[in-house]
């Protein structure tokens, strides 16, 4: 089940949606008039760097809720 980016033609909202077998619907207004958008894929080998960078930023801001117990800084 792939995730696609859509733009609603009725309310102009942009969102991601996990597409199953049924027709996708806008979560904001319920419209079925959706335009599928092109998504930029993550470059191979960059995913790990993105995660490390995001975790560094979260640590600077004091957000540790998504870390495992062993990854949380000792205080």
Report what the structure shows.
The structure is a single chain. The chain is α+β, with helices and mostly antiparallel strands. It has one domain. It has one helix at about 45-60; strands at about 5-10, 15-20, 35. The chain has a three-stranded antiparallel sheet, with no helix packed on it. The longest helix is centred in the C-terminal third of the chain and has 15 residues, at about 45-60. It is elongated, with a radius of gyration of 18 Å. The chain starts with a strand and ends in a 14-residue tail after the last helix. The relative contact order is 0.16.
Total discrete domains: 1
Radius of gyration: 18 Å
Task: Kindly report how far apart the N and C termini lie.
Answer: 41 Å
Order of adjacent strands in the largest pleated sheet: 2-1-3
Q: How confident overall, as mean pLDDT?
A: 79
Write the H/E string, N to C: EEEH
Shape from CA axes? elongated
Structural class, please?
Answer: alpha+beta
Please work out how many helical segments DSSP would assign. Answer: 1
Task: Characterize the biggest β-sheet.
Answer: 3 strands, antiparallel
Beta-strand percentage range: 15-25%
Which regions are unreliable across 5 or more consecutive residues at pLDDT < 50? none
Helix content class:
10-25%
Q: Tell me how many strands there are.
A: 3
SSE arrangement:
Layout: E1 3-8, E2 14-18, E3 34-37, H1 47-61
Antiparallel strand pairs: 1-2, 1-3
Short overview:
The protein is an alpha+beta fold and 75 residues long.
């Amino acid at each position: 089940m792939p995730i696609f980016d859509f733009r609603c033609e009725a309310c102009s909202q942009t969102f991601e949606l996990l597409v199953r077998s049924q027709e996708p619907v806008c979560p904001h207004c319920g419209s079925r008039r959706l335009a599928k958008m092109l998504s930029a894929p993550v470059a191979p080998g960059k995913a790990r760097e993105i995660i490390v960078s995001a975790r560094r930023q979260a640590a600077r801001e004091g957000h540790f809720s998504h870390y495992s117990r062993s990854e949380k800084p000792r205080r």
